[in-house]
Amino acid sequence: MSIEEFSHIEHQMVLDAEERYGDFFTATRDVSLLLSNIMSWPTKDCDIFIRFLSQMKKSHTLSLMALIRQHRIQAKMTLRYFLESTIHAAYSLVHVDTKNYFDTLDGKKHDPQKASRAAYSWIDTHFRSYSAEIKRMKDAINQQTAHANVYNSFHNFHYVGGENPAIYTAFFDFDDDHWLKVDLLECAQAGLVAAELILAIREQHGGFIPSRESDKLPQMIEAVNRLLPQLSYEGNGPK
C-alpha cells in the first residue's frame, strides 16, 4: 500500500471519529480547540511563553489526530512533548527573561537541561498539584510507550499458527475502541490540566488576556468527568 493510500485511509478515520467514538472524541477535540484559542492577546513581553504555547497547541492536536488515526505510540510520545511544553510555557509566563533559554546578546549556547530543571522546580514549588499530575502522566507514558518496548508490538503485530500460519504487521493499530476511548480521555485530561495551570498562573501574574473560549473550561471538565463511568462499564460489562 502506498503512502497516498495510507493518507486517504487516515483522512477517512478523522471524518468518522465523531460517529465512532462519540463524546470521547468531541470532548477531546473541544479541549484541543480551547488550548488553541486560550489567549486573546499578550499584555506583557512574553516571547518565550508564546513560543512554548505554540508547541503546546500543535502537539496536543497532533496527539489527538494520531489517536484517531490509530497510531498510539506516536500519540503518546507527542502527548509527552505537550506536557513538557506546558511546564516551560507556564514557567516562562512569569519568568520572561529569555536568558534561561538563550542569550542573543552574548551569543551563549543555552543548556536545555538547566532550563528544564529551573522550570520544573518552580512549578513544583508554586503549583504542586499540577506538577504532580503532569509528572504522573509523564511517568505513565515513559513506562508504557515512550521507549522501544516489545509489548507495544501487540498493537500492530499478530501471528496465527496452525495449518495456515500467517504473520500480520499492520501500519495501523488493530481496532480496539474501548482502549482508544481510554487514550482519548487521557489526552483530554492532559489538556485540561494544562489549561487550568496556564490560567491559574495568568490569574496570579498576568501576561495575557484570555479568550472567551477559556470561559468554557468548567463545562469541559464536567463533560470529561461524566465520561469516566462509561469507560468502567465498557471495560467490565456488556458492550
Task: Kindly list the characteristics that best describe this protein.
239 residues; mainly alpha; two-stranded antiparallel sheet; 6% strand
Written overview of the protein:
This protein is mainly alpha-helical and 239 residues long. It has one domain. It is 67% helix and 6% strand. The protein has eight helices and four strands. The chain has helices at residues 3-21, 23-36, 47-68, 72-94, 112-126, 128-144, 177-205, 217-236, and strands spanning 39-42, 157-160, 166-169, 208-210. The strands form two sheets. Strands 1-4 form a two-stranded antiparallel ribbon. Strands 2-3 form a two-stranded antiparallel sheet. Helix 2 packs parallel to helix 7 (177-205). It is globular and about 70 Å long. The relative contact order is 0.17. The mean pLDDT is 93.
Q: Which regions have little confidence, pLDDT < 50, spanning 5+ residues?
A: none
For the biggest sheet, the summary is: 2 strands, antiparallel
Give the radius of gyration: 20 Å
How many domains would you count in the coordinates?
A: 1
The coarse overall form would be: globular
Major sheet strand order: 1-4
- Supply the helix-strand structural class: mainly alpha
Offer a concise description of the structure:
This protein has eight helices and four strands, in the order ααβααααββαβα. It has 239 residues and is mainly alpha-helical. The strands form two sheets. Strands 1-4 form a two-stranded antiparallel ribbon. It has a two-stranded antiparallel ribbon with strand order 2-3.
